[in-house]
Design brief:
The protein is mostly helical. The chain has a domain of about 120 residues: Tetratricopeptide repeat domain (Serine Threonine Protein Phosphatase 5, Tetratricopeptide repeat). Helix content is about 60%, strand content about 0%. It contains 14 helices and 2 strands; from the N terminus they run ββαααααααααααααα. Strands 1-2 form a two-stranded antiparallel sheet. Helix 7 packs across helix 8 and helix 9 crosses helix 10. The longest helix is centred in the N-terminal third of the chain and has 13 residues. The protein is elongated, with a radius of gyration of 22 Å. It starts with 19 loop residues before the first strand and ends with a helix.
Length: about 270
């Protein structure tokens, strides 16, 4: 699959104070603020969650001087104890060379460990590694397996990638209806790329009954998020009256937005 790779860093909830760092949920589902000094005591005593969170403090420069190398050291300590968040974060650090020399193989190893514990972001990211041969042998079928595990947990990017796999028959039997179902799940979470493709499905009647009005709805959702192709398609709909009344002014508005982002076809209309 050639669609874009997205491996994002997990966000951690951080408070406004500069001398405290947020602890990850301890089972209660809540995050609490603790002084970094207290966090360090717990981390040095071997508390895996504290080690992970102390690593995050060093990574973000919260309560301590920003130090990516030190962050990786704490992630290693936590990951070695089986903390899935730390394993995932360590994998991301190896992918991007954050605080450590870039190493795709080690990245894939740590992502796999976290994925096997049910970490949705890691499942998605390990799927990307398998899909593209990053640090592991390329295996589209296994990639689909991990995308599915993540997608079933509600991970929007995994849902989108699984939809793409079904649309192209990549690692799975081609099934346009299944593709649309997964695009819809991601689109309903606000994932712009999925919203665009869902709109295209309704436009062309691929995997779903043709419905130009619904196509416009999904193009609009993506366009309002700044997606250039969706802006272009919405402009085209207004020009031709596809799923919406013809409106030259609105067509120009959306085509200009797309052109401003470098959309080649939109620029052909507005640039000499």
């Amino acid at each position: 699959m050639t669609d874009r790779i997205i491996i994002g860093l997990v966000a951690i909830v951080l408070g406004l104070a500069t001398t405290s760092c947020a602890l990850a949920p301890d089972g209660s589902g809540q995050k609490t603020q603790v002084p970094v000094s207290a966090l360090k005591v717990k981390a040095e005593a071997g508390d895996a969650v504290a080690q992970f969170n102390l690593g995050m403090c060093h990574l973000k420069g919260i309560g301590v001087e920003k130090d990516e190398v030190m962050a990786v050291e704490w992630f290693h300590k936590s990951a070695a104890q089986g903390d899935a968040d730390a394993q995932f974060k360590l994998g991301v650090c190896y992918i991007y060379g954050i605080g450590v020399e870039k190493d795709d193989k080690k990245a894939a190893e740590w992502l796999r460990k976290a994925a096997e514990q049910g970490h949705a972001e890691a499942q998605y990211s390990f799927g990307v590694c398998l899909d593209n041969g990053i640090g592991v042998e390329k295996d589209e079928k296994k990639a689909v397996e991990w995308y599915r595990k993540s997608a079933e947990q509600g991970h929007a990017e995994a849902q989108y990638n699984l939809g793409v796999c079904y649309a192209h028959g990549s690692g799975v039997v081609k099934n346009e209806t299944q593709a649309v179902e997964w695009y819809r799940k991601a689109a309903e979470q606000g994932y712009a790329e999925a919203q665009l493709l869902l709109g295209a499905g309704y436009t062309n009647g691929i995997g779903v009954e043709r419905d130009e009005a619904k196509a416009v709805e999904w193009y609009r959702k993506a366009a309002e998020q700044g997606h250039a192709e969706a802006q272009f398609m919405l402009g085209v709909c207004y020009i031709k009256g596809i799923g919406v009344g013809k409106d030259k002014a609105k067509a120009i508005e959306w085509l200009r937005k797309a052109a401003a982002q470098g959309h080649a076809k939109a620029q052909e209309i507005f640039l000499p």
